[in-house]
Design goal:
single chain, alpha/beta, Rossmann fold, 6-stranded parallel β-sheet, 8 helices, 39% helix, globular
């Protein structure tokens, strides 16, 4: 099985969850790119990777969950997805430091109002054209003590019966991934 892991905001493919998936889901291959912050570039990269790598599963964390649900026709698990990233992004306009190392060595990025507007534009159509098949392909995993994002009820409106709650915080730790994510993958 091949898995495309999409990291969250201000992170990278080197984020520890990618390594956790490699350990927990061995011998699965985990592809974990550094996703650009610019929405058009991010979506273009992810669509190209799906075409080239043809992953069996997409796992997206937080902002990565927003991106994962845009990849229609693919089985996906959205972990604490931020369905409205422009709201959080607008509170962070300016220079933002990356939380995990990027392959290109970048240590920060400039978050502009134009980038925020690009996300807001994508948010307006994120649920358009959902088919029963697409709903079936999508599972949302939501922490009961998420301190950052609270999109579970909205997810449930668009993906009824596809929500799984687990005890934890916004960024899941290894034991939570093992106990709650691995069974969803299998």
């Amino acid at each position: 099985m091949k898995i495309l892991f999409i990291h969250g905001l201000a992170s990278s493919g080197a984020y520890k969850m990618a390594d956790s998936l490699r350990i927990l889901l061995k011998p699965c291959e985990v592809v974990a790119p550094d996703v650009p912050i610019e929405p058009a570039a991010a979506l273009s990269l992810l669509e190209r990777l799906c075409a080239e790598e043809d992953p069996d599963l997409v796992v997206g964390l937080s902002l990565g969950g927003f991106w994962a649900q845009k990849l229609r026709g693919r089985r996906k698990i959205l972990v604490n997805p931020d369905l409205h990233p422009s709201r959080l992004l607008r509170t962070m306009v300016g220079e933002v430091k990356y939380l995990s190392p990027r392959r290109d060595g970048a240590e920060s990025f400039l978050l502009t109002e134009e980038i925020c507007a690009g996300y807001e534009s994508l948010e307006r159509t994120e649920f358009d054209g959902l088919t029963p098949e697409e709903v079936f392909l999508t599972t949302g995993m939501f922490a009961d003590s998420d301190e950052m994002v609270h999109c579970g009820p909205e997810f449930e409106l668009h993906y009824p019966g596809r929500r799984v709650d687990y005890p934890g915080r916004h960024l899941p730790v290894f034991p939570e991934l093992k106990r709650y994510l691995v069974p969803l993958v299998r």
